[in-house]
Amino acid sequence: MKKNTYRFILLLLGILLFLTISMGINFSSSLNEEMELPDAIESLSPMPGSQVPQQTTIEIDMPVGYEIVLYIDDYRVSDNEIEHLEGTGIYRWKPGPGKSFESWSPGKHIIKIFWDTSVGLPDIGEFTWEFSTY
């Protein structure tokens, strides 16, 4: 083969390598994007889109002075079932005997919360996310 043929092959391989690396970087960065939470929500667990075991607990961290209403798969969870750590603004709910759900069924679950302040100026909002259990 001629010298120019080798150069052409090396040029094509270099372009292919560059395209492969750039596609990999773009693909991996799109997977690592974090969902932006509303300002009133400090943190959530499980995170939107995550896959968790059936024993998982929903934990919503709100600023102190906020109250929430929790819906799981379009069913309103009674306030009596939600554990609220008032000094920290953390709300927790876990399925169990005598609760709205005795266990998580495998598959997707849609969680919706509505919030408002209990004192001061109103700050009404809502947020919906989903996760899967296995």
The total count of helices amounts to 1
Percentage of helical residues?
10-25%
Distance between the termini: 58 Å
Strand order of the largest sheet: 2-9-8-4-5
Describe the structure.
- There is one protein chain.
- The chain has 134 residues and is of the alpha+beta class.
- It has 2 domains: 1-33; 43-133, Immunoglobulin-like (Sandwich), CATH 2.60.40.1220.
- Helices cover 22% and strands 34% of the residues.
- The chain has 1 helix and 9 strands, in the order αβββββββββ.
- The chain has one helix at residues 3-31, and strands at 43-45, 51-52, 58-61, 66-72, 75-76, 83-85, 90-93, 107-117, 125-133.
- The strands form 2 sheets. A 5-stranded mixed sheet has the order 2-9-8-4-5, with no helix packed on it. A 4-stranded antiparallel sheet has the order 1-3-7-6, with no helix packed on it.
- Strand 8 (107-117) and strand 9 form a beta hairpin.
- The longest helix has 29 residues, at 3-31.
- The radius of gyration is 24 Å and the shape is elongated.
Question: Topology, pairings included?
Answer:
Elements: H1 3-31, E1 43-45, E2 51-52, E3 58-61, E4 66-72, E5 75-76, E6 83-85, E7 90-93, E8 107-117, E9 125-133
Parallel strand pairs: 2-9
Antiparallel strand pairs: 1-3, 3-7, 4-5, 4-8, 6-7, 8-9
Question: Quick gist of this model?
Answer:
With 134 residues, the protein is an alpha+beta fold.
Question: What keywords describe this structure?
Answer:
22% helix, 5-stranded mixed beta sheet, alpha+beta, 4-stranded antiparallel beta sheet, 134 residues, Immunoglobulin-like, 9 strands
